[in-house]
Amino acid sequence: MSDNAILFQTIDWRTISKTIYPGETGTTTWQTCQFPGIRIRIVEYSPGYLADHWCQKGHIVHCLEGEFVSELQNGEASVLTSGMTYIVSDDASSHRSRTENGVKLLIIDGDFLRPPSA
């Protein structure tokens, strides 16, 4: 078995502490589980949230509740609603999120989203 193997387990999100971060406007609340090479989060954006930076990290983002806009630095934007997912690799697209009414997301990121070394 690999040193990075994750044995079967369940996550009771009700027991995971919440950390609040300010956005450019509004706040984001994270509940985070860290494993070798992978991070899993439940993330909530408050109504009126706008991220305070353009992100270069890769993510798999699944919208659990609500609606948000994922903006790309090149001007493109996608609206995601409950049941929709986006995926992006590290350093592939500068992106940031915003929401008018708030949203709840499941976000998974980690080493598997890094592009192969040249």
From TrEMBL:
It comes from Candidatus Moduliflexus flocculans. It comes from the Bacteria. InterPro entries: DHCW_cupin, RmlC_Cupin_sf. This is DHCW motif cupin fold protein.
